[in-house]
Amino acid sequence: MKYILMILIVICAFQLNAMAQKMTEETVPTSVKNSFTSMFKNTTVTQWQLDNGNYEATYMKDGVENAVVYSADGKLVHYKNTI
To answer: How far apart are CA 35 and CA 16, in angstroms?
Structure first.
């Protein structure tokens, strides 16, 4: 039963990742990039994605991958922190 549950979780994770569009930093609006750099001064984005009209920035902090999501006007929508 554990293995079936684990397989279902992995499949769902891949499905959610497939819905987002990877993008280059040049295509991200300036307001979104400015919001990120003001919140995370010494952090570099490893990947940008467009997800349901919002911009998701994936970054590394203390060796752990995290993400933050902004609306197109640069307002924070939510965090995605890895535990």
So the answer is: 25
pLDDT in tens, 13-59: 555 555 557 778 888 999 999 999 999 988 889 999 998 899 999 99
CA–CA separation, 43 and 70 (whole Å): 16
Q: pTM of the full predicted structure?
A: 0.70
What residue type is assigned to position 53 of the chain? G
Which residues fall within 8 angstroms of residue 36, CB to CB, at 6 or more apart? Answer: 45, 57, 68, 70
Using alpha carbons only, give the angle 14, 16, 17 rounded to the nearest 5 degrees. Answer: 65
Which phi and psi (to 5°) does residue 16 adopt? -65, -40
